[in-house]
Design brief:
- This protein is 33% helix and 16% strand.
- It contains nine helices and 14 strands.
- The strands form four sheets. Strands 2-8-7-6-5-3-4 form a seven-stranded mixed β-sheet. A three-stranded antiparallel β-sheet has the order 11-12-14.
Length: 373
């Protein structure tokens, strides 16, 4: 059997092949239960065991402190842009650092529920760099400060979370980590709440993960639906309403895959982080050494997960871009088209992308440049 194509989709994204094989094998009968996971009651013993193991494995992988609750929710990261301010803004002030398209959406949505101030913006630099924390205009009485730790469209990433205390703010830091979660360790001492859709590094679309510090529970606005009230969801152990059961099941398999993953003498999240570093360095080096391709993001904040790239100068035409994408598909390098808002190309190299996939893409870049450069 020939190998599967390498899928560079920004999300829903590639999953580990071992996980997909296990899902296929258990599709009609999960571990002798006589049922598919899709057919189980979310309150039955079988699914309860799946959800309990998934949460425990996730907490272990990310070393989530005991004073954080892990919630399995629905709606994706986009819905959390409303759910978070409904839960913790107290209809007061919210500061947002706009570093790209997704944090801009967060600021816009939060305005429905709170007094939002853009503390800093990378728009003037066309979102090719991150505003230095020392330049942020933070309000002393803000309910929280929001950042997107990795901008999927623009390709900028915080490689170190800001220390709000050092900036003179006592507000909790909220991070949208949709395309970064489980790709690296997290400094929980600097985080009040983190959320992300699962469809990048974790599993199928439909599941949203929320990590919320316990002192932030119980402050939902009256307009917040009960199913989105973090306190209600936490007290019900994510079973207040029917959760996305199949997505939780697949995510749980990914967590077990990651716990067993080894690379460069490391295991688990440390191993996958090292491989992600190696993949990103390999691809950025190829772009930086090219006369035909370029990445426009400042070197100190380039994303390890989402790498937008373009044809340089006179070569940057729709015709040649399309030729590149057509040739990539012929080589079984899939979904490399850039986001419609920025054009060009984009390689999303999440956890499930092996090093061999990036090596194949680099080889294609060189061959394409030899032909057209």
């Amino acid at each position: 059997m020939s190998r599967r194509p390498f899928n560079f989709s920004a999300g829903p994204a590639a999953l580990p092949e071992e996980v997909l094989s296990q899902v296929a094998g258990e599709m009609l009968d999960w571990q002798g239960s006589g049922m598919s996971v899709m057919e189980m009651s979310h309150r039955g013993a079988e699914f309860t065991s799946i959800a309990t193991a998934a949460e425990a494995d996730l907490r272990e992988l990310l070393q989530v402190p005991a004073n954080f609750r892990i919630l399995f929710m629905q709606g994706g990261g986009l819905a959390e842009n409303a759910i978070v301010p409904m839960n913790i803004s107290r209809a007061s002030k919210v500061d947002v650092v706009v570093s790209g398209a997704w944090s801009a959406k967060s600021a816009e949505e939060a305005q429905r529920y709170a007094d939002v101030s853009v503390a800093a913006s990378g728009a003037a630099a066309k979102f090719t760099t991150l505003p230095a924390p020392a330049t942020w205009q933070l309000r002393g009485d803000a309910a929280y400060v929001h950042i997107c730790s990795n901008e999927t469209i623009d390709g900028v990433e915080y490689h170190e979370l800001p220390d709000l205390m050092a900036l003179g703010s006592s507000a909790p830091l909220v991070i949208d980590c949709s395309s970064q979660q489980l790709s690296r360790s997290m400094d929980w001492s600097r985080i009040g709440l983190a959320f992300g859709g699962a469809q990048k590094n974790i599993g199928p679309a439909g599941l949203t993960l929320v990590f919320v510090r316990e002192d932030l529970l119980g402050h939902a606005l009256r307009i917040c639906p009960s199913a989105f009230d973090f306190k209600v969801v936490a007290e019900a152990k994510s079973m207040y309403n029917t959760p996305p059961t199949f997505s939780i099941y697949v995510a749980g398999l990914v967590f077990k895959w990651l716990k067993a993953f080894s690379y460069a003498g490391k295991t688990g999240v440390a191993a996958i982080e090292q491989r992600n570093i190696d993949k990103a360095q390999l691809f950025y080096a190829a772009l930086d050494g090219s006369n035909l391709f370029e990445n426009r993001v400042a070197a100190d904040c380039r994303s390890r997960m989402n790498i937008p790239f373009y044809l340089r100068g006179k070569f940057n035409t729709e015709t040649l871009t399309q030729a590149f994408l057509t040739g990539a598909k012929e080589r079984h390098l899939l979904q490399l088209k850039g986001h419609k808002s920025v054009g060009g190309m984009r390689a999303s190299i999440y956890n499930a992308m092996p090093l061999e996939g990036v090596q194949a893409l680099v080889a294609y870049l060189k061959d394409f440049e030899a032909q057209y450069g």
